[in-house]
Amino acid sequence: MLLLRKAMRDVAAMRIRALLLILVIGAGIGTAGGIALALQDVQASRDAFYHGQALADLDVRLSRTVPAEDLITRARAASATVAETRLIIDGLVARGADQTAAEVVGMDPQARLNRLAITDGQGLDPTDPLGAVVEADYAGHADLHLGDTLDLVLAGRPLTVRVRGLARSPEYLMATANPEYLIPQPGSLAVVFLPKNALADVTATGGQVNDLILDLPHPIPPGSAQSLADGLPVAKLTPRDQQYSLRFTNADLRSFGLFVPVIGGVFALVGFLLIGLSLRRIVHAQRRELGTLLAIGYRRRTVLATALLPAAVLALPGAAVAISVTIGIAVVVAHTYAAAVGFPTIVATYSPALLGEVAAVAVGATLASALLPAWTLMRLAPTQAMRGDPAVQFALPPWLAGASGAAGPEVGYATRSLTRRPLLTAATVVSLAGAIGLGASLNVLIGSTTQTVDQSFAGQAWTATADLAHPMTTAAATRVARDAGATAVEPVVTGPALLQAHDRKADAIVVGLPPVPQLQRPQLTSGLPPAASQVMITEQTASSLQLGVGQPVTLTTSTGSRQMTVSGIARTIAATQVYATYTDAAAVLGLPGQSNSLYLTAPEATTRTLSTSPAVARVTTLAAARSGMHNLVRELTSLINVLLAISLGVGALFLVSSLALSLLDRQAEFATLRALGYGRARLATILVTEALAQGVIAAALAIPAGLLLAWPLAARIGEAWFRIGVHPEPSDFTVVIASALVLTVAAALYATRQVMRLDIATTVRARFIG
Fold this sequence. Notes:
Layout (H helix, E strand, L loop, with lengths): L1 H13 L1 H37 L5 E10 H10 L4 E14 L2 E10 L9 E5 L9 E5 H7 L6 E6 L2 E12 L20 E7 H8 L4 E8 L8 H6 L4 E6 L4 H42 L1 H9 L4 H42 L10 H27 L3 H5 L11 H9 L2 H11 L2 H37 L5 E10 H11 L3 E14 L2 E10 L9 E5 L6 E5 H7 L6 E6 L2 E12 L5 E5 H7 L5 E8 L2 H8 L4 E6 H44 L1 H9 L4 H41 L9 H27 L3 H9 L2
């Protein structure tokens, strides 16, 4: 009990130092824990959303309508546990002069699968046939509100509906006009839900449907999906794990999960470094007391416990702060991510295991940081320990003494102070470099992602793409675009496929290109464009299948399989696309001589005309695709911006704590300087010089550190989304470095103010007498 009271007295005597140490312990470890907890919360929110809204195991989309009873009969034959039919019509939304691709979904208002999560207003009601529920993401981009009217064009027929409610759908959580691009374009597709019978009446398709969603017994028997679709005019067969929104969030969370060890590791490393140095100061401050206890007969293990007790007293509130910081950062990061992706609610897990781990790491790191210097002191003879720290005999190297002395005695004193404490100076510089470098690396990441999107579109010669409502001959498809006013047309054939190599599989979208593509120009990084029986794959596909140029791959579609050879590898943000010659792609997709998509160069008026053509299902302009991707990148990088703000905040705390602890350890020095006649200006020069010297060196080290951190983070994005290069710009570093240097000067000026408030006599007496 006596030793515990002594420990409490020692901590109380530390005052501001104790508070700073508690904050350092909590901030460093809590930040790393908070990012990990946020990942768990987001994963739980994602799983709860898809489970709660009953995302279907399989979605079978047809190219034409068939009797609903036929699809239900097939579902029963496949032992479906739940099956529902829907009517889905492609169309347009016209708002003023703007037109947006639309998908109108006729569904049962009491649907059991792919249910709507109403975020505002009311759900579908069969007594209100033209009361629509609109997907909330599009409504936000289009500034659409409850009670507004929405003008639709469905197969050339105008239809006006009233917005009855807004909702998030598990199927259309990340609605996009171009699902081959894994990163969606927010606002590019308007999804409108209507009662199925009402949509059937409007389109005169009573009793006819073109979509079947169902749940199958688990585990799902192999081949059951394909056998269910045999003989049907299938346009798209989508198992649950390939559903676009789920596939995107899985990729995004995988990227986020890969970020966690890199970012958390930096925070933890810097935090451990500062904790270790701070605790070393505390233990060495007790050197004389510990030596006295040894001299009067206390056993070494008892004295060791005495040295560790102050650390334990600091560790407990530090662990509490770490838990609070963990929860706070998790809330901020998880809500930022949810806002970007669109989960309507966030599930806070408050994982006891993770919070317990954070607390244990905080306590363990604090005690371990005190144990090493304490054990070192215990090995000294009592008389040696009682003498205190040995006097420092230090002389600057001649070149440094001459350079600093020429700048004035204050600069010379500051230089000597930094160089005679190399361990403390180095640790402060490294911790600052880590915090600044992490912030800079996040800036580099944001800029590099944006540049990659620009580069991916820069080499393209098309201005729009048109997905046809039904396959037609290439001549007829070309004529549709020419009649609308297109100046250049490139008909292609596309469709879903499966690539297989080395027992690995990857879903793909096959694109059949002309022998010499003029409009769609994939960016080759190795190899050549495809010739007969060859495919050109993306970098992402090459990585997932571990394929290289010249290696064989099996291409499988609903109409058969074909052995192909990899001719080249392309860099594109459409990660699932696989390019083949038109002849090969049309043959493997069962569409010889036909086209179901167009690349074209056309003025804006032409794209509007094509949008209203019954032969065209959807038109997407290059400008809209690029703009949408930039918008999505900005929304998702808001998460990176949050991490950037956190890194700067924690770095600021580390900086202020380090400078403050250094000042508190040297109060007697500064009091002596004041006694010798140094005023505010000269003391400020000393402190600012010391702080700026450390800040400038840290900033210089932060540049390579930021680049080194940016490489693995960019690789993580490439694994989840698309390959990006690292494209650093001076502005990525200058903002973060300038902020750190301004904070450094502010901290030094605040330290000067504290020095000027010291009681000279009391401070000097405490140092040399007591």
